[in-house]
Amino acid sequence: MTPGQTPSETVRTIRLPAETVRAIEARLEGSAFESVDAFVAFVLARLLESPGGPGLTEADERALKERLRSLGYID
């Protein structure tokens, strides 16, 4: 069980490319996140906070894609 997880919560394993994990680990240095798992869980929870919301605008999507490209996540 991870910190903050209740006994009724289940945990699933996901697979990430090694280069993605290395990039996340590099970004975690000096942060409050204790692990890649904690970081990924936080980011995904933030993305899912507004289910059914308006979604991304075209400008938001372009900005997100550019940010992911600059971080080396997409080509």
Can you describe what's shown?
The chain is mostly helical and 75 residues long. The chain has one domain (18-70). It is 48% helix and 0% strand. The protein has three helices and no strands. The protein has helices at 18-28, 36-47, 58-70.
Give a nutshell description of this structure.
With 75 residues, this protein is mainly alpha-helical. The protein contains three helices and no strands.
List keywords for this structure.
3 helices; globular; 0% strand; mainly alpha; 75 residues
Helix-and-strand structural type: mainly alpha
**Number of domains as seen in the coordinates:** 1
Proportion in β-strands = under 5%
Pattern of helices and strands: HHH
Number of strands: 0
Largest sheet: none
Rg, Å, rounded: 15 Å
Helical content (DSSP H or I, runs of 4+):
40-55%
Helix tally equals: 3
Low-confidence stretches: none
User: What is the first-to-last residue Cα distance?
Assistant: 35 Å
- Look at the structure and give the mean pLDDT: 81
The coarse overall form would be globular
